[in-house]
Amino acid sequence: MSLARNRQSPPPEQLWKSWDRKARKQGLHATVYSADGSQYKGDWQKDKRHGKGVYVWKSTGDFYEGDFANGTRTGFGTLTVKDANGKFQRQYAGGWKNDKKHGYGNLFFSDNEHYEGEFYADKRNGWGRMFYADGSTYEGQWLNDKRHGTGMLRLPNDNRYEGEWRDNKKHGQGKFFYVTRGQLMEGLWVDDICKASEMKDFGRDQAIIPTPYPIPDLSLANPDEVLTEAKESFTETDG
């Protein structure tokens, strides 16, 4: 018997495997619809959204335009949402990782209130600057969407606080500059309240509304020691 007659050809591929292979999305595709009616147009790799693309949510009309990796928003992209009046507003532009805000970006809360800075796991984390609707600004450290660490809050009248924060409140050593009246209060804050401080004149001659009289010199024998003891007592209570 010849070798040619003994040689067996491989079994034919099952049809479902062939169909599945042909159905897999690879490269640039036109609009592809999800089961819920949402749609995506852009690059694919191994049947996942990967590269540049636009995703539109059917339920809200919101859409994301930017980078994808392994089926998630990863890289740089812009999220645009529809408000109650049906008007589209850019909500976020910046870095993403696994469908969450990550890295540096700009988050818009309204037309006159936004944040620019660092994000981690979808929240403001790290360094950032917040512009509030009332005209005040905060620049400094953030932790889980709260002012936390070291930062400066400048009020609309240019008075400002520079110092430590915890859970969105002034907490720790800090300075409050009363620019409007030319005074400086320096001391210890606990839960947004100054517990122990020293008040000084600061730029009183250039102040908009200066105090009638300068602050007199302290008459305590050891003012620094008194302030230190007061700060330590409040720190122990807080600790």
UniProtKB/TrEMBL annotation:
Q: Which Pfam families match?
A: MORN
Name the Gene3D superfamilies on file. Answer: Histone H3 K4-specific methyltransferase SET7/9 N-terminal domain (2.20.110.10)
Biological function: Assembles a suppression complex (suppresome) by tethering SIRT1 and MDM2 to regulate composite modifications of p53/TP53. Confers both deacetylation-mediated functional inactivation, by SIRT1, and ubiquitination-dependent degradation, by MDM2, of p53/TP53, promoting a proliferative and cell survival behaviors. May play a role in the regulation of spermatogenesis.
Q: State the compartments where it is located.
A: Cytoplasmic vesicle, Secretory vesicle, Acrosome
Q: What is the official name of this protein in its record?
A: MORN repeat-containing protein 3
Where are the residues of the annotated region Disordered?
A: 1-20
Q: Which domain of life is it from?
A: Eukaryota
Q: Which UniProt keywords apply?
A: Cytoplasmic vesicle, Repeat
Q: Where is the major localization of this protein?
A: cytoplasm
Q: Does the keyword Transcription apply?
A: no
SMART domains the record matches: MORN
Q: What sections of the sequence does the record tag as coiled-coil?
A: none
Kindly state one GO CC term assigned in the UniProt record. Answer: acrosomal vesicle
